Amino acid sequence: MSSLALTLLYLLAAVLGVVACRSLKLPPMLGYLAAGVLIGPHALALAQNSEGVRHLGEFGVVFLMFAIGLEFSLPKLRAMRRQVFGLGLMQVVLTMTAATGGALLMSHWLGGVWEMGWQTAVALSGVMAMSSTAIVVKLMAERAELESEHGRRVMGILLFQDLAVVPLLVLIPALASSADQLLPALGWALIKATVLVGLLLTGGQRVMRWWLTLVARRKSDELFMLNLLLITLGMAWLTELAGLSLALGAFIAGVLVSETEYRHQVGSDIRPFHDVLLGLFFITIGMMLDWHILVDRWGLVLLLLTVPLLMKLVFILLLARAMGATTGVALRTGLYLAQAGEFGFVLLSLTQRNGLVEPALMNPI
User: Fold this and answer.
1) Which end of the chain is more exposed for a tag (fewer CB within 10 A), N or C?
2) Residue 50: left if φ>0, alpha if ψ -120 to 50, beta else—which one?
3) Alpha carbon 248 to chain centroid distance?
4) How many Cβ atoms from other residues are within 10 Å of residue 214's Cβ?
5) How far is the C-alpha of 339 from the C-alpha of 264, rounded, in Å?
6) What stretches of 217-365 show up as alpha helix (H) in DSSP?
7) Domains in the chain, please, with CATH?
8) What value does the mean pLDDT of the chain take?
9) Tell me: the pLDDT tens digits for 148-159?
């Protein structure tokens, strides 16, 4: 199949998937995933998961992380510090600890069906700790619940989850190192990340404001957009050059721009790239899914579906109650955040790319 025909196939699948989901009042992400499953090698086999499309999909992750960084506000973080560094921190730590222990126990009990080391268990626990910022915020905004009691708690936890993605993006590639190289790899990755983030966030904000002002004075929308793409992809390239992930650089770029007066203009300009390329990323994720394995291991799939949902719901409910919320507020907070999210797919993709998860185990997960 030619490159043009393959591109048209992806676009057609994306359009039909999103139209179907919009008609059923479901999130577009499900449409992209379903389209990927249908056209992928394990269903209609209309397209293979080509390297070119996978790279294009990775740019979607880059723009997702840039958009998250753009929404990141230090004043808002300080104002919500009790929810962010209290409730949010405890939710991520408790979920990751319980999920790591649970994964290792399953590996011991199920043997060949579910076999993994502690490195894989830690990586997967990070995936499980995440919830969908995009879907949850959209739902709460539509229902005017962002300023409610449970809304503030939900936003606090989501903010900390967004923060937690940054060390996880550094940690997961380091976990793929051999046993004797693991500690040096973790230490070196942490040093590089700390130095890079420190340099960018201490002097980077002044440089970013000066540069964006310089470009904006030229009064050219085309130039401003080109400059935006250069900043986002350039920062992603720099962090990849330093041995870290593309997504980390994009997140830092978003944080730097968020502290300038151009954040709202940048947000509206970047949105089309973010949505389209992220859709391609979810199609490539859907194409990895082998439904034959799901049918063969339906018991494991059912277990992996129900246990994390119930576990996160109970943990968040108990933590919210312990921090003074009523049972109703705590339950609503837990129900909003029990699901997994788009960051889970990003981290899962990174986990597989570093060889931490076998393909046969990836499909049930």
Assistant:
1) N
2) beta
3) 11
4) 10
5) 29
6) 221-241, 246-258, 263-287, 291-296, 298-322, 327-337, 342-353, 359-362
7) 50-272+298-362 (1.20.1530.20)
8) 84
9) 899 989 988 988
Q: Which is it for the CA torsion 82, 83, 84, 85, positive or negative?
A: positive
Report how far residue 346's alpha carbon sits from residue 67's, in angstroms, rounded to the nearest whole number. 14
Residue 219 has which token pair? 């009064």
Distance CA 362, CA 125 (A): 14
Instruction: State yes or no: pLDDT of 1 exceeds 80.
Output: no
- Region of 19 please: left (phi>0), alpha (psi -120 to 50) or beta: alpha
Only one residue has tokens 């340099």, namely: 199
What per-residue confidence (pLDDT) applies to 111? 66
Region 80-107: mean pLDDT is 89
Residue 334 amino acid letter: G
144-162 burial code (b ≥16 CB/10 A, e <16) = ebeeebbbbbbbbbbbbbb
pLDDT, greater one: 200 or 363: 363
Q: Which pLDDT value is given to residue 71?
A: 75
pLDDT tens track for 329-347 = 999 999 999 998 878 888 8
